Automatic annotation (TrEMBL):
Species per Swiss-Prot/TrEMBL record: Mycolicibacterium chubuense (strain NBB4) (Mycobacterium chubuense)
A Pfam family this chain is assigned to: TetR_N
Name of the protein this chain belongs to: Transcriptional regulator
PROSITE patterns noted in UniProt: HTH_TETR_1, HTH_TETR_2
Gene Ontology MF term list: DNA-binding transcription factor activity; transcription cis-regulatory region binding
SUPFAM superfamilies with a match to the protein in the record: Homeodomain-like (SSF46689), Tetracyclin repressor-like, C-terminal domain (SSF48498)
Amino acid sequence: MRHAAAAPLGRPIGASGEETRRRILDAAIRCVAEGGYSQATIREIARAADVTSGSLYNYFATKNDLLRATAQSIEELTLPRLRAAAQSSGDIVDRLDALLDESDRLMREFPYLAAFERAMRAEHTAHRRRGDTQAGVHVIRALIAEIVDDARRDGSLAVEADPESVVDVLFALARGLTERAGESPLARRDTLATAKRLIRGTLFSGPDDTGRQVT
């Protein structure tokens, strides 16, 4: 009795090259996020994408090429949404709020993004690799810098504040929020709300004329 030959791994019947490429990129994000840079081998990524290693090499010549393309795909996904949020209407603080809100939405919609970025950052730090495969939260820094520059030009930034230091602090806050992307929805919501109150200057109250704390 003859048996039908098993379908080979690689491009599925009816699938386009772009669909296969997209599946490989998605698998790369997931493998790096779950196992780290070193564990995310070409073989492992190919297995997760349901293609052979040979088929994967038809799309990407090296692992670095693959991860560079992966980072670019993340930027193409996140940058338009983050930029739109950063350029939304309202004052400077409203725009920062909108940027943090959109970043939080992205992390909820694509739960592997934060872990991928964290794994790649650790690899760059350990081996001093070039930063051309970094993605995710790093696109936020340039957008924060734009907002801070607008604040400097319209006079809403304190004159004694160093703009670069302000960008550093706000970026550290934004990156810290992504580090907590795996928390429960309630904890993540409370953390985000606290960060926004800190930016607005409403987290702490000062003493009134009697020396008592204002609530």
